[in-house]
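Protocol step 4 of 5: obtain the predicted structure for the target chain.
Materials: sequence only (see below). No template structures provided, no constraints applied. The aim of this step is simply to have a reference model before the mutagenesis design in step 5. Sequence pasted as it appears in the construct record:
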Amino acid sequence: MSEIRRHGTGRHGIGRRHFLYGAAAVAAGVMGNTGCTPDDTRGSGGRDGVPVVAVDAQRRSFTVSPFMTGVNGAKWYDDAYGMWDSEHNRPAPGIVEKIKKAGVGMIRYPGGTSANLFNWRVAVGPQGSRGRQIEGKQGATVDSRFGPDEYMAFIREVGATPQIMAPFAGSAPDEIADWVAYMNAPQGTTWGDLRARNGHPEPYGVRYWEIGNELHGENQRYWMSADDDKAMRQYAFGGTQRQKRQHVGTPTDHRPSAAVSNGQPHQSFTVWYPPVVPKSQTIRVGDTTWREVADLASAGADDPVYTFDPRSGGIRFGDGRHGKIPQQGAKITADYDSGPHAGFVDYYTKMKAVDPSIDVLAIWAPIEAGKLVEGQSFPEFLAEHGHADKYDGMAIHPYTNFPRDLKVTSFPDKRAGHDYQMLGDAAAATMVSDLTAQVRKHGKDDAYIAVSECGALFFGGEREADAYPEYSYAMSHALYMASQWARFADLGVRWTASNDLIGEKPGLSRTLFGGAPSFVATPDAIVREQVSDFFNGGGHVVASEVKDNAEVSTRETPLGSSYEALVTHATVDKDGTLNLLVVNRSPDDDIKSRVEPVGFRHATTVDVSVVAGRTYHDFNNAEHPDAVTIERSRVTAHGTSLTCTFPAHSVTLLRFPPEEAGATSSDEKRTSHA
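Step 4 output (structure tokens):
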């Protein structure tokens, strides 16, 4: 069971009864009953143990990014899990307005692990002529109906910014450079003309690209080495790698069943990761090694032979007259040297030559036990080899992985499911901070960090979450994500995408919206709606901190035994409005605090919005789509500061309009920094 503590002091808790009063008061919207009242007292700490939320409106840092509340598209096949109506060639009814309402700033395509072998060329043009391709996790064959053009039509309908994960494992630099040209080149060029013939004459102007998805992970190495250092070198510069006892397949199917002989003549297979170093392959049918020949026509009926194309990795067997037919049911495997393959630097160079205005990000940021892997980092490695200028940024996936980071295989109870997420939030922020420091030290001046996936998850199944099965789409996860946005924005992260946009039909799991056809908005989506204007204000991040913050104590874990109750983030819009985001992660306790905006003279009214369910484990579903909603009110603030009660498990946004355009107190101005 958690409890509230102040830093270095005894227990500090406000209680459930006070929370119920506060929530009702916020909804009432009457000054004095809203939870915020004027307070002219100032000081470095709170009276009677009250935390102080201090905001320095003159201490500016980063430009506010409108892409903080992005999301991973996750799946392109199966009509993007029902988001795309392929029959009518349009977004599915009901999803567009929900995404708009949630203010999703960016959508990643074609996704993560599932898209590591994506082939964009077979996903454009008339639907009837499109090919099938390989899903990158299970190796299954999937459709190409929701291709790059459908994705961009969807993007324009919902008003989001595109971001593309260009696959590395099964592609080549020229192929991805051609994709950049298809998306961005004008008419009068080869790929611009093809796009126009496909019904899209104007360039799409996709700026943000990353190369590969989690290739540092043990289960996503594909052709690369199992040795971490060698694999990082291969990602950077390419190379060749021996594959052993690997199932063969087809160009569209890597499942084990695709490696089994059907006993028919003229069977064809391919190795998984061509090209292949000539004469390096060993092909086995069952346990027997067969022999390569240049031409099956000269082979005898019982000769165990095949022909082989090193460029495509294609294997062809005989017909029983010229070359033996592999017996029905026999499994076919291959040893071979996969390569030579190109590396990230080659992709970067080719893509930037097509369109110098794009940003191309690298993804080699491995994580273990809730922190970045120790040893030489990718930015340091590139700098050592004279290529510090060959990436525009780094993308990281700072997931809270419960088994990896907290060494747990299940939730003991609901409270643990909540607390583990909050503990993971701080660790994720540290990962991002550490990678930021590496890029600043070793990269070029304008290189930056992006988060292209994040969240708190059990990977590989949800049976571990039986005590709190809704954890990934309940209010707890909304608090986790709001904390992530606050911390990442303070670190200057350029964009953030969570995992995932929608789930399989019709369920709710690990997603922003439930599956088709209802597309239920989760508390995560509700909070995004709440903060949409906050991240689209076009101004600057300003300094905020909580003095005498309350702490929530937890079980002992590898990530600690307590976490900060309040997390804050503040901005000043280009119109002069001061915004303060306050996340109270305490599962049970309201937190009374004094809010002190320094260097800012605000108007006499403050707009307040609060998202908080009845409990931290409340969630929305098809039967109760409005269990978690936004409560809005306006309070009067004659003084310079306010005393506010932030309800338990809530996200509160305070918006302070300026006293008048450009008005600030001259004696409170501070030195700004870039």
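Step 4 remarks: Residues 7-34, 661-674 have pLDDT under 50 and may be disordered. The chain is about 20% helix and 25% strand.
Proceed to step 5.
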